[in-house]
Amino acid sequence: MAGVLALALAACAEMNVVACAGMAGVLALALAACAEMNKEMGEEALLYDRLGGKEAIVAVVDDFVANVAADDRINGFFANTDIAHLKAMLVDQVCEASGGPCVYTGKDMKSAHAGMQITEEQFNAMGEDMLKTLQTFQVPERETNEVMTLLGSMQGDIIGQ
Ligand code: HEM
């Protein structure tokens, strides 16, 4: 399919405007078909959808925050935190980052953790709490890895701030 599209684009460059516009319509259809094919082949499914959408993310965040609250290594940080707000922010963040329709409106990770001096050990403790949650929900290995990679990518903005 990609080869056909490349050829069509090359042909388009040789045409006048009207013919090219017609070609663009055909290309749009071809691209839509392409997306559908990928979907059927399971290549393009968003992490958001593979996790089970918003409802599943809310359940995951609930369980994760309960794990953190029970984790003596890090729960002291949250003594004065508005937990309902934190959960809402985490849901929006994971939902948006996994390709879902949410918009995260919270602080950026550097500002959110400024002055906390979080260590790598504490960051890893939270990672373990998330892993425990993903195992509880029997999230498959591929999606577990993607969620953990997502969290890991924020490490530099969270520790030592
Ligand atoms: C990848 C890992 C993490 C993510 C994605 C994350 C995400 C967030 C988010 C979205 C907020 C809310 C920001 C806002 O209110 O606008 C937040 C706040 C907070 N985070 Fe993290 N965080 C992570 C790691 C950690 C770690 C390791 C700790 C401590 C051990 C921590 C402690 C806190 C605390 C105490 C707050 C609340 C501050 C307040 O009460 O306003 N976070 N975090």
CATH topology call of the largest domain: Globin-like
The beta-strand count equals 0
Whole-number count of domains = 2
CATH H-level superfamily title of the largest domain:
Globins
Specify the CATH architecture of the largest domain: Orthogonal Bundle
Strand content: under 5%
**What Rg is obtained from the alpha carbons, in whole angstroms?**
22 Å
Tell me, rounded to a whole number, the average pLDDT: 84
Are there runs of 5+ residues with pLDDT below 50, and where? Answer: 1-12, 23-35
Cα(first) to Cα(last) distance is 48 Å
Counting helices, strands and paired strands, the structural category is mainly alpha
Helical content (DSSP H or I, runs of 4+): 55-70%
Reading the helices and strands in chain order gives HHHHHHHHH
Shape descriptor: globular
In CATH's first tier, which class of the largest domain applies? Answer: Mainly Alpha
Hetero compounds: protoporphyrin IX containing FE
DSSP helix count?
9
Main beta-sheet strand count, sense and barrel state: none
Quaternary status of these chains?
single chain
What this model shows, in words?
- The structure is a single chain.
- The chain is mostly helical.
- It has two domains: 2-40; 47-158, Globin-like (Orthogonal Bundle), CATH 1.10.490.
- It has helices at residues 2-13, 17-40, 47-51, 53-69, 83-97, 109-112, 120-136, 141-152, 155-158.
- Helix 1 packs antiparallel against helix 2 (17-40), helix 4 (53-69) packs across helix 5 and helix 7 (120-136) packs antiparallel against helix 8.
- It is globular and about 40 Å long.
- The protein starts with a helix and ends with a helix.
